[in-house]
Specification:
The complex is a heterodimer of chains A (115) and B (113).
Chain A (H helix, E strand, L loop, with lengths): L2 E3 L4 E5 L4 E3 L2 E3 L5 E8 L6 E7 L7 E2 L2 E6 L4 E6 L8 E9 L6 E3 L3 E6 L1
Parallel strand pairs in A: 2-12
Antiparallel strand pairs in A: 1-4, 3-9, 5-6, 5-10, 7-8, 8-9, 10-11, 10-12
Chain B lengths: L3 E4 L2 E4 L5 E7 L5 E7 L5 E9 L2 E4 L6 E3 L9 E3 L8 E8 L8 E2 L3 E5 L1
Parallel strand pairs in B: 2-11
Antiparallel strand pairs in B: 1-3, 3-8, 4-5, 4-9, 5-6, 7-8, 9-10, 9-11
Classes of the chains: A mainly beta (115), B mainly beta (113).
């Protein structure tokens, strides 16, 4: 079975600085997708970024980028120029390449942004 | 376009009571999902549906039932509520697995006492 591990329960960053959140996963599949979701205090889950396993190029969305190391099964999220609105719980998630689209989530990293 | 809506936002149940958590999406998505999130944990899949009339179990289905009579609605039924079902429940939908992006509702907080 696939598992997702986030080893950093909490992180803190100064406003305008850069922070990296770690995620590792375990799978025997070759076709899969990886996601980072943000959950602010409102509790709604918001997609931050998505990476297809077959793509070698790391995904980027504005200030958010990933470092996808397929062989190491690592999928870290880098947030540049951190803003107060980035403060939230961040979840890493895995999805098999099959038809059901079921997501497996890590336990989350709570990010605090200091002014 | 409201996206995914859930009702109620918060509910307190007594042990043994039953209730239905409502979920509606207006994006014409075929795929819909129910997750639960326990304190300090990630989301775990309860049930999912790949289209009207088709449902299947996820990781933690015990104590729950679902139905999918229309594309828009995917209610989650709790029978004989137990304290272990105290959690935050999220409904999500997606257009297709190829796209991979799930859109989440705002969640329902359930407390069973």
């Amino acid at each position: 079975a696939q598992t997702v591990t986030q080893s950093q329960p909490e992180m803190s960053v100064q406003e305008a600085e850069t922070v990296t959140l770690s995620c590792t996963y375990d799978t025997s599949e070759s076709d899969y997708y990886l996601f980072w979701y943000k959950q602010p205090p409102s509790r709604q889950m918001i997609l931050v970024i998505r990476q297809e396993a077959y793509k070698q190029q790391n995904a980027t969305e504005n200030r958010f980028s990933v470092n996808f190391q397929k062989a190491a099964k690592s999928f870290s999220l880098k947030i540049s120029d951190s803003q107060l609105g980035d403060a939230a719980m961040y979840f890493c998630a895995y999805r098999s390449g099959g038809a059901t689209n079921k997501l497996i989530f890590g336990t989350g990293t709570l990010l605090a942004v200091q002014p | 376009n409201a996206g995914v809506t859930q009702t109620p936002k918060f509910r307190i149940l007594k042990i043994g009571q039953s209730m239905t958590l409502q979920c509606t999406q207006d994006m014409n998505h075929n795929y819909m999902y129910w997750y639960r999130q326990d304190p300090g944990m990630g989301l775990k899949l309860i049930y999912y549906s790949v289209g009207a009339g088709i449902t299947d179990k996820g990781e933690v289905p015990n104590g729950y039932n679902v139905s999918r009579s229309t594309t828009e609605d995917f209610p989650l039924r709790l029978e004989l509520a137990a304290p272990s079902q105290t959690s935050v429940y999220f409904c999500a939908s997606s257009y297709s697995p190829e796209v991979g992006t799930q859109y989440f509702g705002p969640g329902t907080r359930l407390l069973v006492l």
